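Repro:
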Amino acid sequence: MKILIVKLSSLGDVLHLFPAISDLRLKFPEAEIHWLVEPAFAEVVGWHSAVNKVIPVSLRAHKKTWWKIPALLLGLRKTLHEENYDSVLDAQGLLKSAIMARLAGAPVYGFHVDSAREPVAAWLYKKAAKVPNGLHVIEKNRQLVTQIFSIKQPTIVNYGLEKFRQKLIESELPSKLIEIPKYSIVLLHGTTWNSKYWLEASWSELIKLLAQQRRHCFLPWGNEEEYQRANRLQMAGGEYAKVLPKLSLTELMKVLAHAQAFVSVESGIGHFAAALDITGVMLHGPTSPDYSGILGKHCQHLTSGVNCSPCFKRDCPILNEVNAPPCQQAITPQ
């Protein structure tokens, strides 16, 4: 049996599907499971022990060169047809993901019109799963797989990361890094939502408090904006704060595995750290751990408690006098 999973992005959404893939592997131990995903997340998909093959497709990169998309899709159709899939599962629930799933030339399954993120996508499926609203996103994905493939859902949530976790622990740090001191904290300050950014003043205060305890703080970054913020934050900790060099996602996970703990805004990397049972704290401003939090054994989730949270909005509609979301200002370093 050969199954294609379609989940194109993003980092957190990919992880939220991992337990469902583990359930699928448990039901079909001999199945060949492939995953269609954006190149930026192909590395991460490969961390799951049940995924046999990762197929990257650069749809995002063609937003400004839309006239090249037909050629891209024709090439993808040829690639997928050569695999002769038995089933295709669109776990994204978008029109674009449903269309790409159909390119494989095999029966496509996905969310019911009442459950899909874009209801029109459900019209392209042979069979659709109606999943109740309000569930944690991991449970929603697991129920999708349960219904489509007639699986008895296991009680244990398995992220399929145990082999990857062991590899991180046993592997050495990247040569570009100095040794990570025993009492080190990785501060994951980057995110894609404006409303998820914790105040820079709060990060600075936290770093100063940690420096007073002689805790080393490491500041990763993924783009120029995050790099500039990391450099500003480094000044708050002096010798106890260090901006990391540009790292791949796997290299960053190695750093996290060798550190004592992490502090993170709600982000994909933070979720992966929690799923790998790394000790940490995750800050939820506009979101709720009851919907998307990774409840790892050693991760504590902090919420603001303000009336407008969680709002699940990318941009805060009620910025306060310091141009910050009230939910983020309510979460203090102490």
